[in-house]
Specification:
Blueprint lengths: L2 E5 L2 E4 L4 E8 L5 E9 L6 E7 L4 E3 L7 E6 L4 E6 L8 E9 L4 E4 L3 E6 L1
Parallel strand pairs: 2-11
Antiparallel strand pairs: 1-3, 3-8, 4-5, 4-9, 5-6, 7-8, 9-10, 9-11
Amino acid sequence: QVQLVETGGGLVQAGGSLRLSCAASGSIFSIKSMNWYRQAPGKQRESVASIASGGGTYYADSVKGRFTISRDNAKNTVYLQMNSLKPEDTAVYSCNVRAGAYYTDYWGQGTQVTVSS
């Protein structure tokens, strides 16, 4: 069974920083990509950042230049460094790992990030 455990959410003032971590454990093989999504109240879930097995990265336009995704392959852990946070970054952030021959999606439980103005 695969588990994704996220840590690092919380309350921060605008302009501040937070670092999210997501550690994958269990029978997870051949990770294709590790990804962060977020969902704000009343809005659809959106992709925030992704990092592929080869190291290529993707960022949503709204976070480019402020967020950095990275991964530790030895620990099956993905990080999201969030700087210059804005109130509109407030959301539940969820970790996603896509793995295996069939690109199976695994999800973490989500962690709340609240940015006060």
